[in-house]
Amino acid sequence: MARAARFGNAGENGAGEALAGRSPAPHQVMTQNRVKPMSIHIIEEEKPYRLISDGEGRYAVIEARAGHVYSLHCRQRNGALDSPAGMAVVVGDGWGDETPARQLFRDMCGREEGYSQIIW
C-alpha cells in the first residue's frame, strides 16, 4: 500500500530552533546558521518497510514493526520508537539519493513477500 504522509517536525528544541554552534541532533538539520527540526515524510509504505524523506531531498528505507523502527543502512539493528524522531535517529547518516533508496525499497518489499510465503 503506497501512501504519502508528513509527520511534521521531528523533535523539538524550544521554539523549534537553536543557535548555530551547537551540534544538531540526528533529527535536526543546519540551515543558515540555525538548527531546525527535520520534517520526516513517508513517501511510500509497504509493511513492514517505509521509504522516507527528510524534506531536504535525502531518502532512506526503514523497517517498522511493533511500534519500533529499524535501520536498513548499517549492521547494527538498534531500534527506536516509531516516531519522526525515532526514524531520524535510526537512519543517522544513512540518508541518500532517491533512486537508490527507491530500488532498496522495492528489493526489500520483494524479499518480504518471499519470506512470508516460506514462513506461512
Characteristic terms for this protein:
about 120 residues; alpha+beta; 2 helices; 8 strands; about 35% strand; globular; disordered N terminus
Walkthrough of the structure:
With 120 residues, the chain is α+β, with helices and mostly antiparallel strands. The chain is built from 2 helices and 8 strands; from the N terminus they run E-E-E-E-E-E-E-E-H-H. Strands 1, 2, 3, 4, 5, 6, 7 and 8 form an 8-stranded antiparallel sheet that branches. The two termini are 20 Å apart. The N terminus is likely disordered.
Can you lay out the helices and strands and say which pair or pack?
Blueprint: E1 5-10, E2 18-19, E3 28-31, E4 34-46, E5 49-53, E6 59-65, E7 68-71, E8 79-81, H1 84-91, H2 98-119
Rg (C-alpha, Å)? 15 Å
Number of helices: 2
* Main sheet makeup: 8 strands, antiparallel
Distance between the termini: 20 Å
Instruction: Say what oligomer this is.
Output: single chain
What share of the residues does DSSP label as strand, in percent? 35-45%
Helix and strand content put the structural class at: alpha+beta
Mean pLDDT, as a whole number?
A: 75
User: What is the overall silhouette?
Assistant: globular
Series of secondary-structure elements, N-terminal to C-terminal: EEEEEEEEHH
Helix content: 25-40%
Produce a short descriptive summary.
With 120 residues, the chain is an alpha+beta fold.
